[in-house]
Amino acid sequence: MIFLRSKAETELLRASGRMVSEVLQALESAIKPGVIAKELGQLAGQLIRERGGIPAPPQVGFPGDICVSVNNVVVHGVPDERILHSGDIVSVDVMASLDGYYGDTAATFPVGEISEEAKRLLEITKNALYEGISKAVAGNRVGDISHTIQAYVEKSGFSVVRDFVGHGIGKEMWEKPQVPNFGTPNRGPRLKKGMVLAIEPMVNAGDYEIDILDDRWTAVTQDDSLSAHFEHTIIILDDGPEILTCS
To answer: Which residues are CB-contacts of 53 (< 8 A; sequence separation ≥ 6)?
Structure first.
C-alpha cells in the first residue's frame, strides 16, 4: 500500500525532517581530519535523543546510530575506529523517528582538501538529487524521477548504483513505493498529493557494481572507485514537492 499523508501527518513529518536535518548539519561541522567515524556516530545518537528522537539503524540490527561511509563505501558504512584524513570524502546517512514518524537525509562531505574528481562527484550527485526531486509532482510516475537521475548522472560520466534504491517513508522506515535511481520514464506508480518519498541517488565514479563486506552491512564499489550519496525526504503537494529535511 502507498500511503497519502494528511495535513496532521505532514506536520509530524516536517518535525522529524527538521530533526534529522539539524543533526546532519551538526555532523558537517564536526567533520575534519583526525575525527574518528565512531565519534560522528556517537554525536549523532546524542543529538537525536536530545531532540526526543529514536535512531533508526539499531532497530534493524545495524551496529551504529547512523551510517558513516568513507571513500569507496557506497552506503551502510559502520561508524567504527576509522580515522578521517584530508582528501577523504564521507557520506553520512541520518534516519530517525520522532513521535512515530521517520525522517531520512544524507549528504557526502569533503574532509579537508579533496581531489577535483571527488569535488565533481559530489557536485553531480547533489545536482542529481535535485533533478530527481523536480520530477516529484502529482501526475508524474516514479520512473520519471528514476530516469531523470540516471540520465543526468550518466551524461556526466558517472554511474548510478542499482542495488540500493530510494523509498516511501512515514510511520515505517521503508514503505512503498521503491524509487530507483535508474529506469524508464512514464513507468511505475503514479505520483499523488500526500506521497512521501526518500529520494537518494548513490553515484560511483567508476562502475555501478558493488560488493558487501563480511560484516554484512558495508557496501563498497567493486572497482574501488569513489562513491557519493545525497538524500532528502520530500512530500508531494498541490504546488509541487516540498523538501521535509531542511532545517
So the answer is: 16, 19, 20, 96, 97, 98
Condensed to tens digits (0 to 9), the pLDDT of residues 77-88 reads 999 999 999 999
Q: What is the pTM of this model?
A: 0.97
Angstrom distance (rounded) from CA 44 to CA 83: 17
Alpha helices in the chain (DSSP H): 7-30, 37-50, 116-133, 142-155
Letter for the amino acid at 123?
E
Residues 6+ apart with CB under 8 A from 151: none
Q: What is the secondary structure of 19-73 as a DSSP string?
A: HHHHHHHHHHHH--TT-BHHHHHHHHHHHHHHTT-EESGGGGT-SSSSEEEETTE
How far apart are the C-alpha atoms of 233 and 70, rounded to whole Å? Answer: 22
What is the CB-side half-sphere exposure of residue 203 using CA atoms within 13 A? 36
